[in-house]
């Protein structure tokens, strides 16, 4: 899709970017728009800026979590006081990381609950439609499949009676 291509182009930009500002400068916007135009996409700068905000935050959090892991390794193997990162930095990014994990779990649960409610309402509405429409009831109760099922049941009963009859004939024949 278009958004995936725009995101891919912005991710290329963030990997090779010298400055670490949260906003794109006009030349970066122009470069990304030209690259996308060469790929046959026309994108407005507003869309780039919206997607950039998400990509920048994601990259920031990834670097922060990687720094947290590096810091943890360093504190395990070396003296705590010699590192430029303080304990507060470690705690802050650890809490941000945990908060993001909890947010993801909560959002998944909300989506699951919402989908369950949507499905329940859909089923309830369909059942109500069937209960109020006599034609649909008749189709369900007297359709071709129902008639075939009734015939199969009758044939099954006849088959059982025939088997009993054959068994009784065989039994009488042996005596």
Could you characterize the architecture of this molecule?
Residues 3-172 form the Dynamin-like GTPase OPA1 C-terminal domain. It comes from Henneguya salminicola. This is Dynamin-like 120 kDa protein, mitochondrial (Trinotate prediction). This protein has 175 residues and is mainly α. The protein has three domains: 2-83, no CATH class; 86-142; 143-173. It has helices at 2-15, 26-38, 45-77, 87-132, 134-142, 144-174. Helix 4 (87-132) packs across helix 5 (134-142). The longest helix has 46 residues, at 87-132.
Instruction: Specify the overall morphology.
Output: elongated
Determine the oligomeric state from the structure: single chain
**Count of distinct strands:** 0
The number of helices is 6
Mean pLDDT over all positions: 84
Order of SSEs, N→C?
HHHHHH
Main beta sheet strand tally, sense and closure: none
Low-pLDDT segments, ≥5 res: none
Strand pairing plus helix content: what structural class?
mainly alpha
Whole-Å distance between the termini? Answer: 82 Å
Percent of residues in helices: over 70%
Q: How many separate structural domains? A: 3
Question: How big is the Rg?
Answer: 34 Å
């Amino acid at each position: 899709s278009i958004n995936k291509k725009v995101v891919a182009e912005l991710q290329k930009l963030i990997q090779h970017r010298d400055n670490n500002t949260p906003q794109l400068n006009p030349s970066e916007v122009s470069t990304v728009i030209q690259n996308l135009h060469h790929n046959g996409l026309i994108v407005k700068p507003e869309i780039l800026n919206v997607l950039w905000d998400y990509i920048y935050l994601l990259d920031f959090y990834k670097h922060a979590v990687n720094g947290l892991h590096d810091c943890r390794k360093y504190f395990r193997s070396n003296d705590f006081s010699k590192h430029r990162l303080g304990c507060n930095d470690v705690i802050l990014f650890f809490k941000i990381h945990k908060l993001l994990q909890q947010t993801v779990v909560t959002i998944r649960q909300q989506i699951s609950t919402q989908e369950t409610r949507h499905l329940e309402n859909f089923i309830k509405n369909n059942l109500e439609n069937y209960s109020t429409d006599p034609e649909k009831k008749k189709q369900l109760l007297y359709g071709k499949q129902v008639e075939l099922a009734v015939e199969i049941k009758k044939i099954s009963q006849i088959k059982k009676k025939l088997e009993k009859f054959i068994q009784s004939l065989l039994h009488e024949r042996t005596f």
